[in-house]
Amino acid sequence: MDVMFSSVQHFCALYLVQCSLGLLAPESVGTCGSELPIWTQLVLHLLLGLFLLPLARAALTHRAPPPLAPPRRHAVLQRRPPRPTRSRPDLFGMERYEARLIDFLERERDDDDSSSSSSSTVSTSMLAITGARGVGKSTLLRLARTYYYQQRFFGYILYADAGQDGFTADALRGELARGVGWFRPPAAASTDHIATFLRSQSFLLLLDDVQAGGLGFDLADAGLPTTTTPLGPRQKVVFATRHESVCAAMGCADDEGNVIRMGCLGDDDAWNLFQYCVGGNIIDSNPMIKAIAKEMVGKCGGYPGALVRVGLSMSIHNQLESWIYADEVLSKNPPPGPGAIHQDNDDQGYPCLQSFMEEFGC
């Protein structure tokens, strides 16, 4: 079709050019059947040629479009799923905690279904994460929840905030029921129903912010085995608490290797975390600001919660005067040092930083 169209266009263009130049004999032009004089027909042909000349030029330069290329086949790369910290650049200094958590959760991942539950002990089924408020316990739990939910290493990922007011066995039972897809009132899901269902399932239970004294009830009251009845393969319980006394109350001990103590960051990790929270090029924009920033990081004592709060507060300040004033305020209200990192009397969060937060609106 394109070839035929191009040939017709070429013929018409040649005919019009010949008419315009008078190359055609007058008698041949007059055979069109018109009663007009010959020279009038020539003038009309000339005008028509001028009008159609752009079309003729386009026809002479016409090229058929190239054939459509077949769709590309993108290769699917088969590779090991990345570790969680690769997608979280703010998790500075948490690699060792992450490694221990992953080792605990995947310790029995390759066990076959024939493994008896009696071969599992508390040290392989329950893990405690302890440390002061703001060291990253909740972040580590959320990291595990997101990562293992995507990779489907466990049949069910169950999460509950044990620190909320009025958290009871009924509340945990309701969270477990909703976690396994039983969308009905918690009272309708009895302990026996949940225990019977979970006994044959793989699951990961994450309990955040367990208060002093533990949960105040036995996990069996919510439908889970206790320390006297170890969990089966791929059945894990991880809880986070600010109080070391909870670890023993929940059946975790240092000699069993199922306690992770999170503490302050090293100098390099603390500096990297602070820079990440400030963001942009504020620190590198002025050598004096960078020097003040290093002093502020030192005053935070490697305390992750303080580094994050102070860094986010300074992320909107790029004037040297603001940084000088912030350093003075921080000097009057320093965060707790490494010696206070595991104290149990930290329920108020960061009272020492309250003045700093009020000044800079974080």
TrEMBL record:
Pfam families: NB-ARC. It comes from the Eukaryota. GO terms for molecular function: ADP binding. One of its GO terms (biological process) is defense response. Residues 124-279 form the NB-ARC domain. Signal peptide: none annotated. Residues 71-86 have a biased composition (Basic residues). InterPro entries: Apaf_helical, Disease_R_plants, NB-ARC, P-loop_NTPase. Residues 64-90 are annotated as: Disordered. PANTHER family: DISEASE RESISTANCE PROTEIN RP, OS09G0272900 PROTEIN. This is NB-ARC domain-containing protein. The lineage of its organism: Eukaryota, Viridiplantae, Streptophyta, Embryophyta, Tracheophyta.
